[in-house]
Amino acid sequence: MATIAVNDMVHHQTSLELEQKDVFDYSKRSQWLRAAVLGANDGLVSTASLMMGVGAVKQDIRAMILTGFAGLVAGACSMAIGEFVSVYSQLDIEVAQIKRDFNRRDDVEAEVDDLPNPWQAAAASALAFSLGAMVPLLAASFIKPYKIRILVVAAAVTVALAVFGWLGAALGRAPILKSSTRVVVGGWMAMVITYGLTRLIGTKGVLH
């Protein structure tokens, strides 16, 4: 009986270990996933909003493209620097904590690979921002008629927002419909507000 009980315990422990190996900890994706999703959505929404705002008062395609390109470069640099500073601060805090634990001679084995990487986060954020910003730029680049250009940009941005929302939810095992809807509605609100306010200021002569 004792032998059977021991065998059952060993079998149960082995099963638990196998289950733990099979279960992926999605929280480990949080660092790069947050930077990538935030960067892509920010690049898409901010660049599209800038282009819509300029398009509200100036129908010239060249003005829209230059505005979008300037927004891409400025935004990618801003996202990269902001993410680098933020993650570097987090890294300093975690390293300081490891040193304190070591000085207290606690049984702590620091996993260096698990420490946040500022350069990786900055690069991922800048790249994701640029990829998102390219959507409205490419959508507007080859369409000269103003009204059609605005509609195409809006449609392309809507599809991209839905895709980014779905991708972020799928990778993080979050509700897909809820995440996609939130992202699309938020993006549309940003574009509508920017378009409306810029058109109001530009057409009502507030700046004259």
TrEMBL record:
GO CC list: vacuolar membrane
Pfam families: VIT1 (PF01988)
Molecular function via GO: iron ion sequestering activity; iron ion transmembrane transporter activity; manganese ion transmembrane transporter activity
Record's catalysed reaction(s): Fe(2+)(in) = Fe(2+)(out)
Matches recorded under InterPro entries: Ccc1_fam
Signal sequence annotation: none
Transmembrane segments: 61-81, 121-143, 150-171, 183-202
Localisation per UniProt entry: Vacuole membrane
Any single GO BP term: intracellular manganese ion homeostasis
Keyword field: Ion transport, Iron, Iron transport, Membrane, Transmembrane, Transmembrane helix, Transport, Vacuole
Membrane topology: Multi-pass membrane protein
Family of the protein in this entry: Belongs to the CCC1 family.
Reported function: Vacuolar Fe(2+) uptake transporter.
Protein name (record): Vacuolar iron transporter
Organism, scientific name: Cynara cardunculus var. scolymus
